[in-house]
Amino acid sequence: MTNWLIFRGSGTQHDDIETLPEPPPWRARKDQDAPAKTYQVDKKLIEMVNAALYLRRPLFVAGKPGSGKSTLAHAVAWELKLGPVLYWPINTRTTLKDGLYHYDAIARLQDASLAEKEGKKAPSIGEYIRLGPLGTAMLPTDRPRVLLIDEIDKSEIDLPNDLLHILERGEFEIPELSRARAPRVDVRVHGSDQRAVLEKGVVHCRQFPFIVMTSNGEREFPAPFFRRCLRVDIEPPDPDRLEAIVEAHLQELSDDARELLRIFCDQRNQDDLAVDQLLNAIFLASHGAGLTDEKRDHKRDLLRQAIFRSLSVL
User: What is the DSSP letter of 103?
Assistant: First the structure.
C-alpha cells in the first residue's frame, strides 16, 4: 500500500503532501457546481420536478441518506439558471421564524444607547434584520429562487403546516418593521452581502420559489401537509444507472472500478449504502489503494470495509 500513502506514521518529516492528487470532482472547491452538473436524474424524477414547477408546489423528496435528495435542488438551480440554492437545515428546535428572518433587538438597543450618548443618530432598524433562507426565497424576483429545506422530518410537529400556510399566501409580515411605521426599510438577505428594500414590513413574492423538502423517513406527516405538496421517492439506482453515475464523475470505468461496483451492488442487498461510498472507493482505488487486489492483505480488507460500512451501523 506504500504507493498511495502520503502520511506514513514514520516519525520523519517530508514533503510528500505536494504529491497529493487533485481532489475528486465532487470535493473540488474550484467547481462548486460539479455535483449539479453530473447529477443523474431518472424520468420519473424529471417529470415530478416539472410538475412542481408548473403547479408552484413544494416537492417533498424522500429517500435513504446519500440517495441524492439534496443534490436535486442544486441540479435544478444550475440547469435553469436560478442562482445559488438557499439552504435551510432543519432540527428539532427549528421554528418558522428561523426561516423567515432574524431580528437582533439586543444589538439595536445597545447601538441606540451608544448613539444617544455620542449625540448621533441611531442606525436604521434594517441594520438589525436579516432575512432567513425562506424569507429570502420569497423576495419579489423575476425568476424563482430554489430553496432546499433539508431533513424536514426532524422538525417539531407544527412546522410543516405553518410553513405551507406561508407558502399558500405567498407573503409574510415582519412585525418589528410594521410597528416602526417606516414605509421603506433596507434589510440584509440570507447567504450574501446583498440587501433588499421592504415596503411596510411585508415580503411578497412575485414568483413562488421552487422548494425541495427532503426526508429520511423518520416521521409521518399529516394529510393536509401532503395535500399542499408533491411527493416523490428516490429509489436506489440500479447497476446500469450506478455505472452512468460513476462515468459522469470519473469518466472511463477501469477494471477496478467495475469490480468495486459489483462488490457494492452485492453488499447493498444486505446493507444501507450510499452512492458516494462507491465513488470514494473507486477514487481511492484509482490512486493505488489496492481495494480490489487479489493479493490484498488484511489491512486492505479493513479499508474497503470501512468505506463500504453500512449507514445503519453506528
Answer: E
Cα 140 to Cα 8: distance, rounded to the nearest angstrom? 55
Distances from the Cα of 276 to the Cαs of 35, 65, 67, in angstroms?
11, 10, 9
Q: What's the rounded Cα separation, in Å, for the pair 119 and 271?
A: 68
Tell me the average pLDDT across 233-251: 87
- Find where cell 423576495 sits: 139
Q: What is the pLDDT of residues 158-186, one digit of tens each?
A: 899 899 889 999 999 999 998 877 789 99
Task: Name 148's bridge partners.
Answer: 87, 212
Order of strands across the sheet that contains 86-89: 86-89, 146-150, 210-215, 59-62, 230-233
**Element containing residue 262 per DSSP (H, E):** helix 255-268
pLDDT digits (tens, 9 = 90+) for 7-52: 989 899 999 999 998 888 777 666 667 778 888 888 999 999 999 9
Residue with cell 453530473: 38
Report CA dihedral (130, 132, 137, 138) to the nearest 10 degrees. -70
The DSSP symbol for 213 reads: E
At 75, list the grid cell.
Answer: 441540479
| Global confidence as pTM | 0.87
Do residues 15 and 9 lie in contact, with contact meaning Cβ atoms separated by under 8 Å?
no
AA letter at 157: I
CA 217 from chain centre, in angstroms, equals 17
- Answer positive or negative: Cα dihedral of 24, 44, 310, 257: negative
Q: Where are the beta strands (DSSP E) in the chain?
A: 59-62, 86-89, 101-103, 129-131, 146-150, 171-173, 184-188, 195-199, 202-204, 210-215, 230-233
Burial of residue 201 (number of CB atoms within 10 Å: 0-12, 13-18, 19+): buried
Q: Starting at the edge strand that comes first in sequence, how are the strands of the sheet with 202-204 ordered? A: 101-103, 129-131, 184-188, 195-199, 202-204, 171-173
Q: DSSP 3-state assignment of 195?
A: strand
